[in-house]
Give the backbone structure.
Amino acid sequence: MIFVLRADAMESDLQDLRARLEGLGFVVEQMSAMGRSVLGLSGDLDPTRLESVKQLRAHPAVADIHTTLRSYRLVARSSANESRSVWLGDLEIGGDAVVMMAGPCSVESKPQLFATAEALQKAGVSVLRGGAFKPSTSPYSFQGLGDAGLELLGEARQAFGLKVVTEVMDPRDVEKVSAVADLLQIGTRNMFNYDLLREVGRGTRPVLLKRGFSARIEEWLLAAETVATQGNDQIILCERGIRTFETATRNTLDLAAVPLLHELSRLPVVVDPSQGTGRRDLVAPMSLAALAAGADGLLVEVHPDPVEALKDGVQSLPLSDFLSWQPTFQRVARAVGRTLGPESRVR
Ligand code: PEP
Ligand code: MN
């Protein structure tokens, strides 16, 4: 870590800065580089001390601080061959097999959920998605069935032997949702809800942490770190698109995030091309692109009758379309050394 000093720094300020850094336990060496005075720091730097050091950016002797150190540690990748597997019971996410998660945006009724679950189970899909508690930008759009939706998810889980992923929005609901869900979804609007992150971190259910639509990669990883600091390190990241100047798609799906996160972090990465594009016609092509980029799973919105959907019908694939894409998804997965589908369902 390097502190670049202000050219007009007073000697007394410099001495004060040195003393503070040494007080934090660092060995400090003053050097000059390209005509500027700099302080080089050596010593062990844990994330808490890193934060204290960063605060010294406000010191009157400091012009800039340069660091290549990461502000997260528990979710960082520490070696090239480190496993990134998270287990939902007997189902591995982050291994050779890419895991397909599909289902309606929202649980709407028993016939809707069961028709979907039955078709998915037959196709060898392992995880059923469906929101019971829906975060909505508009208070006038469908808010989800709540407890009744959760109950239906529990019934479908039992009836079809599928794993269930569903969103939890309120820290007070974590226990209740954990009783049904195999995987707790934290939605894009809640990625910055640190009370909720800590609450799921205190539990034992794996967490699907969606990227905040305005979140940088580092902020997203720090949100995952917040979960992990509470003891639960079973975290899966889900890229679901970010807000950019482009309005032709609902969000801009940042697929470069997939290989980048694999490099930076030990967590598996799933892609949601449905929220990521907001357009049904783009969901399958972007699923293929996500597989090619190395995604460990896909989260896809499907519906038996998208025209009748209470939410996100425009981006939901009709079940029949989704099923007809499976062989192509599998071919791309195989092309990048992965498997997808029934043959890799349970280990
Ligand atoms: C969803 O999965 O239906 C959803 C609301 O996701 P996001 O939080 O990514 O918008
Ligand atoms: Mn949705």
Residues 192 and 223 are 7 Å apart (CA to CA). The pocket of manganese (II) ion (ligand 2) is lined by residues 105, 275, 301, 311-312 (CB under 6 Å). The chain has a mean pLDDT of 94.
